């Protein structure tokens, strides 16, 4: 039976980054950045991915603004690890690429080997085990070069696990023998290494030795609350019992494993073993149900995998690695100075071009604003001119109406004087017997009738107040000529007494006629008739 404990790779990487974070952030001043990093990693370890992404993103932003180089690397790489745990491998590799470029820029071999280790894990997920081994070996070589014992233990464990996957048991045994002594100060990682060691033993057929080692390890993992390690140990112990043909005990531990984890890949392994155990126990329905669960979980993993994005990002990473190697080669040659100077010249040239373009664009913008301002001013002046012309026209109409009003009032005054003179003559005692007086009264009365030339008045008024007459007729088509003449006097702001004199009627008759017209026009009695007529005049 093939032993596969892929979760160990991820767990080792997570602890590796957390270890680095703790030691690195103690030396830097930003307590907030350190707290966010620690919280983000804790959230990631406890499958609180949304909170992990939020805290790690905040930590990254803070590190960028404060120019904290190593915390920036740690936040970026841990973001990649979070996306990896979420099975978004394309996004994970994007962050790994960014972290790798940061490590190169910082000339930090520790960070570089960290990212190389994580890249290897991605290749394992893609079943490219030989490429994964090459990246693990690079990390392992840097750790040995830097004489970092704990890191040597980490990467040796990863290499042991990988060679176990590749069925290179001899190499796996050698690597795990190197790893275990280096990890005595790291209880959780040591437990992971011991898991790999017992998986190798099980693959070699030493099931009883695995049970002897595994059961105490399971008890220790439970006491230490190592949830993922408990699941892996339950799987390992179940496989050992299965190989030892103790199927009931194997079923017990595999069912404990299924109830202790929500990780799909581990569940697939548990369901595979569960199906085999159920088959051996003649529990065919359980065996088939496990097969169905395997199909469902496999389909779920397949659907969430973004192969295209992962391949593109992997290519970008490899290109970045090639560029880095090329940059090192150029750094050792005489051409570096020429390239540097040429880059500076091109940069200044580009800057000059950008400045010219910006200046021209700024000038065009200013000219456009001036043109728009001038156009707006011209429009404003035209509106002012139109307004002044309208005022001038209104003033001219007012003057002409004043002239008409004065003429009408003059005529009214004449009529009053003539009537007064007639009354004075008729009151004379000898009026009826004096032929001369009678003839004079007749002539005066004839002047009284003929002096008011209503047709001339109407024509002149309509000529001056065309808009008013038109609007009034349009709004009240039932008005007759006498109504319009009366309303014209009102529009000229003549009093009822003056209008009564002009029309040779009593003031009381004039008042009643006004009331009748108000009703005919359909306006409120509280609204002055003159105000209403001026509003009608303003209606175009």
TrEMBL record:
Residues 376-403 form a coiled coil. GO terms for biological process: regulation of DNA-templated transcription. Keywords: Coiled coil, Membrane, TPR repeat, Transmembrane, Transmembrane helix. SMART domains: TPR. The keyword Membrane applies. The keyword Membrane applies. TPR repeats lie at residues 73-106. The chain crosses the membrane at residues 339-359. InterPro entries: Sig_transdc_resp-reg_C-effctor, TPR-like_helical_dom_sf, TPR_rpt, WH-like_DNA-bd_sf. PROSITE patterns: TPR. One of its GO terms (molecular function) is DNA binding. This is Tetratricopeptide repeat-containing protein. It comes from Flavobacterium orientale. The lineage of its organism: Bacteria, Pseudomonadati, Bacteroidota, Flavobacteriia, Flavobacteriales.
């Amino acid at each position: 039976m093939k032993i596969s404990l892929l979760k160990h790779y991820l767990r080792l990487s997570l602890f590796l980054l957390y270890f680095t974070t703790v030691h690195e952030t103690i030396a830097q001043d930003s307590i907030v950045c350190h707290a966010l990093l620690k919280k983000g990693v804790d959230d990631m370890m406890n499958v609180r991915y949304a909170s992990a992404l939020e805290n790690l993103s905040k930590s990254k932003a803070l590190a960028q603004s404060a120019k904290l180089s190593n915390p920036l690397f740690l936040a970026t790489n841990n973001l990649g690890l979070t996306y990896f745990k979420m099975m978004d491998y394309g996004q994970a590799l994007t962050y790994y690429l960014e972290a790798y470029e940061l490590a190169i820029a910082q000339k930090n071999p520790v960070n570089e080997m960290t990212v190389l280790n994580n890249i290897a894990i991605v290749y394992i997920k893609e079943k490219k085990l030989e490429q994964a081994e090459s990246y693990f070996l690079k990390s392992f070589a840097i750790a040995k070069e830097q004489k970092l014992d704990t890191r040597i233990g980490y990467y040796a464990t990863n290499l042991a696990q990988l060679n176990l996957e590749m069925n290179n048991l001899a190499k796996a045994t050698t690597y795990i023998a190197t790893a275990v002594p280096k990890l005595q100060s790291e209880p959780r990682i040591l437990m992971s290494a011991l898991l790999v060691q017992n998986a190798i033993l099980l693959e070699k057929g030493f099931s009883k030795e695995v049970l002897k080692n595994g059961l105490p390890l399971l008890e220790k993992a439970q006491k230490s609350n190592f949830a993922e390690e408990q699941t892996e140990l339950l799987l390992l112990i179940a496989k050992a019992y299965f190989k030892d043909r103790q199927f009931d005990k194997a079923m017990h531990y595999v069912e404990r494993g299924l109830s202790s984890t929500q990780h799909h890949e581990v569940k697939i392994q548990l369901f595979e073993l569960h199906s085999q155990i159920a088959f051996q126990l003649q529990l065919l329905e359980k065996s088939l149900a496990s097969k169905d669960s395997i199909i469902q979980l496999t389909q779920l993993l397949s659907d969430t995998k973004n192969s295209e994005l992962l391949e593109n990002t992997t290519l970008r990473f490899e290109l970045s690695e090639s560029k880095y190697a090329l940059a090192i080669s150029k750094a050792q040659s005489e051409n570096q100075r020429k390239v540097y100077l040429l880059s500076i010249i091109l940069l200044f040239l580009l800057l000059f071009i950008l400045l010219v373009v910006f200046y021209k664009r700024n000038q065009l913008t200013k000219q456009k604003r001036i043109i728009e301002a001038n156009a707006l001013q011209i429009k404003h002046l035209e509106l002012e001119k139109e307004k002044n012309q309208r005022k001038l026209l209104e003033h001219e109409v007012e003057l002409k109406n004043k002239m008409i009003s004065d003429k009408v009032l003059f005529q009214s005054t004449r009529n009053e004087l003539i009537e007064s003179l007639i009354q004075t003559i008729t009151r004379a005692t000898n009026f009826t017997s004096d032929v001369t007086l009678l003839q004079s009264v007749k002539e005066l009365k004839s002047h009284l009738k003929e002096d008011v030339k209503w047709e001339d008045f109407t024509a002149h008024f309509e000529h001056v107040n065309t808009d008013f007459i038109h609007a009034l007729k349009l709004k009240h088509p039932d008005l007759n000529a006498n109504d319009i003449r009366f309303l014209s006097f009102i529009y000229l702001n003549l009093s009822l007494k003056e209008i009564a004199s002009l029309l040779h009627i009593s003031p009381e008759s004039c008042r009643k006629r006004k009331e009748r017209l108000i009703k005919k026009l359909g306006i409120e009695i509280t609204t002055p008739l003159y105000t209403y007529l001026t509003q009608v005049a303003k209606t175009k």
